[in-house]
Amino acid sequence: MSRSAVDFIRKNILEMAGYVPGEQPQEAGYVKLNTNENPYPPSPAVGDAIVEVLRRGLQKYPDPLATVFRVEAAKLLGVEPDWILTGNGSDDILTIVTRAFVGEGDYIRLAYPSYILYRVLSQLQNGAWEEVFFQGDWTLTNDFLASNPRLKLIFLANPNSPSGTMIPPAVISRWIEQLPCPILIDEAYVDFAAESCVDLVKLSDRVMVSRSLSKSYALAGLRFGYLVAQPHIIEQLRKVKDSYNCDALSIAGATAAIRDQNWLLETTRKVIRTRERMTEELRALGFDVVPSQANFVWCTRKDRPVKPIYEELKRRKVLVRYMDYPGWGDGLRISVGTDSEVDCLLERLQEVLSTDGK
Fold first, then answer.
1. Cis link prior to 326 (omega < 30° from 0)?
2. Of 224, 218, 220, 184, whose CA–CA distance to 204 is shortest?
3. How many other C-beta atoms are found inside a 10 Å radius of the C-beta of residue 42?
4. CB atoms < 10 A from the CB of 64, how many?
5. Distances (CA, A) of 141 to 108, 136, 148, 196, 272
6. Which helix (H) or strand (E) segment is 324 a member of?
7. Whole domain around residue 241: which residue ranges?
8. Which part of the chain is the Aminotransferase class I/classII large domain (predicted)?
9. Which among 222, 243, 259 is the end of a domain?
């Protein structure tokens, strides 16, 4: 009898669990506050740009380097276009960087708790990972910079998920000379924060910064992200990416989005205002809420478990993200929605908390 194709799959793939994204219900009627999407529609310029591409046709391959986007992003960031690599969402960027730096038996380092995908990317390479726990105030000790001869890459989500907290760029700049290997600073949520680490890329080729258009630019459905790194690093990473990893529609839409900085400023201000109100209201309901610099908040409680609260909210068609980190604890990560969505969340939470759900 011939063997199943499964028998030929690499052992490390068979043994890994894989990354599980947040729930994406297909049924209508949910207030969806579980995957950190922007609650507002993108800049109108995005749709216009995509329609223009469709008018011209899709019969030809897109620009493999997304040059028009890189030119616009470079102007915005104060670098040259050859400092930028584009990807099919920032997850594609993280994958490219991991494939380039991490081989079999190599290690990555990450703060904990943070974005679980980093582990998965290492597993795909048949590599390993080591975690440095955040302290209670969401800072990191010098253990994050400790030497390890098998360490090839450090990931730092900044602002972090699930906490929404941030390591200040001034602190990271003092780390640069102590870094045992390259560090990728994942700034998926940085447009909701007060500072960015992008200027640190100019100080050392060991610093790379990734960005996403999914959150602040409201383009989660388009899938577009990019990396800022020194040109000789970008040159090597281009060898690893798929030939045409960004399609013509996403390139046009992403370029139109970053050109509309007025839309970005107005929208992020709305999200931040709602985030601050939501934080105060959740605290009034008895939640411990970490001050956030992202478009979500991290909520815990001392008086009752939070998983039943998540389950009751879901039953009432309000989705938040329940997250459990072994060795650290669990909590609810709640995305910032529109004011009406947040009002609905708070109303349903009051209903849930008024019942004996302990």
1. no
2. 184
3. 23
4. 14
5. 17, 11, 16, 20, 29
6. strand 321-325
7. 44-259
8. 30-349
9. 259
240 and 282 in a common domain: no
3-state secondary structure of 208: strand
* Residues 34, 57 within the same domain: no
CB contact at 8 A, 164 and 323: no
**Mean pLDDT, the chain, as a whole number?**
95
Query: Count of CB atoms within 10 A of residue 109's CB?
Result: 25
Q: What digits encode the pLDDT tens for the residues 78-113? A: 999 999 999 999 999 999 999 999 999 999 999 999
- Residue 98, judged by CB atoms within 10 A of its CB (0-12, 13-18, 19+), counts as buried
Helices (H), the chain: 11-15, 44-56, 67-77, 90-101, 117-124, 169-175, 231-237, 248-259, 261-284, 307-315, 339-354
Assess whether 104 and 202 both reside in one domain.
Answer: yes
Residue 182 CA neighbour count, 13 Å, CB half: 18
Task: Taking each helix axis as running N to C, give the angle between helix 261-284 and helix 339-354, from 0 to 180 degrees, rounded to the nearest 10.
Answer: 20
- ω into 162 cis (within 30 of 0): yes
Residue linked to tokens 């440095």: 132
Helices 248-259 & 44-56, crossing angle to 10 degrees? Answer: 150
Nearest to 22 by CA among 125, 115, 147: 115
* Cα–Cα distances in angstroms (integers) from residue 276 to residues 283, 296, 306, in the given order: 11, 10, 21
pLDDT of residue 86: 98
Per-residue confidence (pLDDT) for residue 313, from 0 to 100: 97
Tokens of 59: 């019969």
User: What pLDDT, in 10s, does the model give residues 245-283?
Assistant: 999 999 999 999 999 999 999 999 999 999 999 999 999
Beta strand 128-133 with 151-157 is: unpaired
Q: How many structural domains compose the chain?
A: 2
Q: Which residues contact 61 (CB under 8 A, 6 or more apart)?
A: 244
Return the closest-CA partner of residue 201 out of 223, 179, 225, 216.
Answer: 179
